[in-house]
Amino acid sequence: MRVDRPARKQKPISLTPLVDVIFLLLLFFMLSSTFTTFGQLDLGAPAGSGGTGTVPEAILVLEETGLRLNGREIGEDLLMKEAQSLLDRDVDSILLLVRGATTTQQLVAIMSRLKSLPDLKIVVANAQ
Amino acid sequence: MIRMPRKAEKRPLESTVSLINIVFLMLIFFLVAGQLAPPQDPEVTLSEAQAPSLPPPDALYVRSDGSLYFREQPVTADAYLAERLLQNDTGADRIELAADKELEATQLLQHVAELYQAGAKRVVVVTRTISE
Predict the structure, then answer these.
(1) Are B54 and B126 in contact (CB under 8 A)?
(2) From the centroid of its chain, how far is CA A32?
(3) C-alpha span between B35 and B20 (Å, rounded)
(4) CA within 13 Å, CB half, A53
(5) What was the ipTM of the complex prediction?
(6) Is B121 in CB contact (< 8 Å) with chain A?
(7) Is the pTM of this model over 0.90?
(8) I want to staple B124 with a disulfide (CB 3.0 to 4.6 A). Which of A20, A40, A59, A98 is the partner?
(9) Which of residues 15-34 of B touch A (CB under 8 A)?
(10) pLDDT tens-digit profile of B69-95?
(11) Do A46 and B26 touch (CB under 8 A)?
């Protein structure tokens, strides 16, 4: 005689452990992720260390009071125009002299703007 | 007038499924949008610039007073370089230097020069990209 087993009624799976794990994952990723986007800026080898770099044809002095290109004071808004006009005159290497209490922010801002001109070679030097 | 006690309305138990949905969505969001970050120095605010992008670096930090920190331990340029070379990791030829934006640029350049003297092949300054 065959006795059919009574069909077991399956209980629905409990969601609690799933939620626990998802919560843990969420916490982990929330705490360990960053939304800052980083950038990199190459300052190049320091000048005056005996390299075989080209002789700079223009000098840009960076002070806390402002910028001086070849001894002439220029405003920061004119920087790109001046750099472009240097390139037009076939001046393609520039020495960036950092003086006084210039902050890193100022240096980085000037550098990143000058780097947008790919033909311009920049050498950074410490004037102190 | 007789005051009748109101029968407390019995609300049905809220379903957890909607909660799980939201949590799941947030999980997916953080998975996709975030990047796992190596520990960052809390004292250092990076300078802002438009520069080629870089994944979150495990950088050498320069605080605004000019002192060098790696993973919140004070180090010198020589010791840091020696450790990097000892570990022989693939990124040893590129040193990431994360400088505070208030640091004097002359001090930053000194640190860069020291790193090159200690044998670094390439030193890059880590910046924060500003959104347009």
Answers:
(1) yes
(2) 21
(3) 23
(4) 20
(5) 0.72
(6) no
(7) no
(8) A40
(9) 16-17, 19-20, 23-24, 26-27, 30-31, 33-34
(10) 888 888 888 888 888 878 766 555 788
(11) no
